[in-house]
Amino acid sequence: MVLGLAMGGCSLVPGYQQPVTSVPEGxxxxxxxxxxxxxxxxxxxxxxxDPELAALMDRALAGSFNLQAAVARIDEARxxxxxxxAAQYPAVAAIGSIDASNGFATSHTQSVFAQASYxxxxxxxxxxxxKSAEALVHATAFDSQTIVLTLTSTxxxxxxxxxxxxxxxxxxxxxxxxxxxxxxxxxxxxxxxTASDLQIxxxxxAVFTFESAVPIFRQQLDQSLHLLAVLAGGIPEGFDxxxxxxxxxxxxxxxxxxxxxxxxxxxxxxxxxxxxxxxxCSKAAxxxxxxxxxxxxxSSSPRPIAKPxxxxxxxxxxx
Length: 319
Prior knowledge:
Blueprint: H1 2-8, H2 51-63, H3 65-85, E1 91-102, E2 106-117, H4 125-191, H5 197-231, E3 291-294, E4 315-318
Antiparallel strand pairs: 1-2, 3-4
Helix pairs in contact: 2-4, 3-4, 4-5
């Protein structure tokens, strides 16, 4: 018995050693701002100070089917981890039976059996399987956070493209209008004998060139608006954004050491934000709605991850 318990503590599975990665201390190109850098906020899009962009993010996080599927995969991986970890504990089974027979005399027989079994993990197989399942849960959670990051970055990039294309369309229309005005001046000069037909044809060619850029920018603007509508969980018909001037938008500062913000390069004991959605209603945790979220809620102050166990995530209320 003692020998079995001693051998049960042995394991042939090598311990995990996280690789050391070198990160730069600053940007390769010096920035123009001398202000202090700050850590990346999980709700980084609010740093731009645009309420419409924040509303689009809430809609995208609440209506993304890919995000809902990622949450379901986390629940699936958690259940698989619980099943894999059950082999480390004793198994108890209870069986009951009732027999009745009618012959020369009626007899009833009742029996109850209880059985307990435990597999001694000599070489650490069960522990390795349980740790592998727990690591799969963490990897699935990181994958879901990658979906969140990809979705939010795509929404922000498309939103800024819409604002940029609107500005470019306005400038193209102004340039075309100025070219037409110059053409009218040259035509008046020709009437006075101070301009030639060649100058008129050259300016008319410039007007056509500037006017041809207007429908191209308008088409690109419509395509970006349609993409933004789909990302926000809506339909392109009737969708529009008011937007604000890009020159008046606040520009957040970003630190050079981005690896500290990547979930895949962090240690398990380091602060790690959880998925920013609810596993039951698939709403963004950044909204004011009360919902049950997986794990630890998004917070501006870092909190350590709890030591992995058979239940890796806890459900709690956030407001």
